[in-house]
Amino acid sequence: MNAPLRRVGVVVMVLFALLFLNLNYRQVVKADAYRTDAHNARVQSTEYERPRGKIADAKGTVLADSTATPGDSLKYQRTYPLKEEYAAVLGYKPVNLSSTKLEKLNNDFLTGTSDKQAADRITGLFTGKKPAGGNVLLTLSKGAQDTAYQALGNNKLGIKKGAAIALDPATGAILAEVSLPSYDPNLLSTHDTKAAQANYNTLNNDPNKPLLNRATSEVYPPGSTFKVITSAAAMSADSSLTPDSVVQGGEFYQPPETSSFRIKNAHEGICPDSITMKQALTVSCNTVFARMGVERVGADKLKSMAQAFGFEQEPRLIEDQDRNYCGIVASHTGPMTAGTDNRVDPPAVAQSSIGQREVKMSPLQGAMIAATVANNGKQMRPYIVDRLQNADLSNANRTDPKELRTPITADVAHELQDMMFSVVTSNDGTGRSARISGLQVGGKTGTAENGEEQEDHGWFIGFALKDGKPIISVAVFLENAGKGGSGEAARIAGLIMKAYADEKGIR
Question: What is the domain class of 223-384+403-503 according to CATH?
C-alpha cells in the first residue's frame, strides 16, 4: 500500500474510533441527562401526566400547585396562587424553559422520582398506580411574609427596589423572604410556550431586573450596619472595651500618614470629642468607628471578624445535598491595601470600618449578623425547607437546625445586644422606628453611599427578644432610597417582627 492510501486509511480508522467513542459517550455517560432533560418531549409528557407536589408555607398555605387542564396534551399545569409575593423564593416550573429556585432544587421529590420515594415506586409496580409527587413544606411565616411584602411594596418613600428577609435566630429557619420588584411566575408556567418565552424575554430585559432575588443573590454596600462587625472586632480584641467605655469621637477623623483624607459624620454635632461606645453606635458616629478600625482593630482583624460572620465564603448552595436553599452570592470586604507592595492603606481601612469602599453585603448576610448577636454569638445555618412530605402525608425528611460557626463569645454578643438596644430605644437612636411594645428590640441602621449620581441605599438589621430569648432577626434593604431610607427600613423591620410575634402569640 502506498503512503497516501495508508494515510487515508489511518484517518478513516481515527474517524470511526471517534464516532464509536461519541456514540458510547451519548448512550452511557449522557443517557441520564437526556432522559431527564426538561426539553425532551417524552419527559415532559410523562412528567405532566400526574400532579406535581405542592409547595406550602409553615401554616399549610399552598404557594405552588398543579391544576388539571382537560383537553390539553399536558394534563396538569403548574400554578402559583399568590403570584408575585413568593416568586423570589419558589422560582418557576415552565414547560420550555429551565426551572429555577426551589422548583428546580426539589424537582425530583416534587415529581415523585427522588430516591426518598423509592418505596412508593416499588409499590406502584404491584398496584399499577403511578407514584405521585411529594410536597415541600417551607419554614415561611405567613404573617411575617405578608407584612414584609405589603410594607416593602407600600413603603412611604415610594422606593420600587428592595428586599426583606427574616430568620429565627435560634434555628436559622427563614421566616420571610421578599424581593422587589417581583413577577408573576404564572406567566412563565403557561403551556403556551410562545407566550412563556415572550414573557421571559420581557422580564429578562426589564431594566429593573424583577427576576433577581435581591434578598439572597445580590450584594450592596452595607453602610453603618457594618459597624456591628467593627464593634465585634474591637471588643473581641480588647476585653477591657465595653459599651460604656469612653472613646475618641469628634467631627472629623484623619488617619495617620495622610495629608488630606478625612472621615466626617453624617450630621454635625452628633459626635462629641469623648463618647461611649454605646452612644457612638446609637447615633452612628462615623469618626469613632473609622478611628477604631484603623487604630484599635487593623485591616487583618477587621477582615477576619467579617469572615467569622460569613463574609468571603464561596458562592454556593446552602446545604445543597438536602436541596434546601437557593444560591447565594458571597458578601465581601474587598482589599484594604494600596500600592504595588499591597501595604495596608489607612484610608481604605477607615472607609471599610463604616461599611463603605468595597465592602458589600447581601440582605441575608445582614439578617445573619443580627441573628448571631441575638443568639449569643452562635450563627445557625439558614434553611427554608422544613420538611419533605410523601404523597400519603408521611414525612420523608425533616431539616434539623445546624450551627455554622461561633464568631463571637456570649459576652461580646451581650455587649453588642446592649449597644443595639440603645439604637432602637434611645430617643436619639437612629433605629427608633423599629420599636415594638413588649419586646426587646435591637438593631442598626445604615445609609450607604452608592456612587456620586445615585441616591444612598437605606438599611436596617435587627432582632427582637422576649425575656432574653431570641424571637426573630431581620434585614430590610431599600435600594437608592435617599434621605430617610434607613429610618423607613427600620419601620418596616419593626412591622415584620411584630407580625411574627403576633402570629406566635408573643406579647
Answer: alpha beta
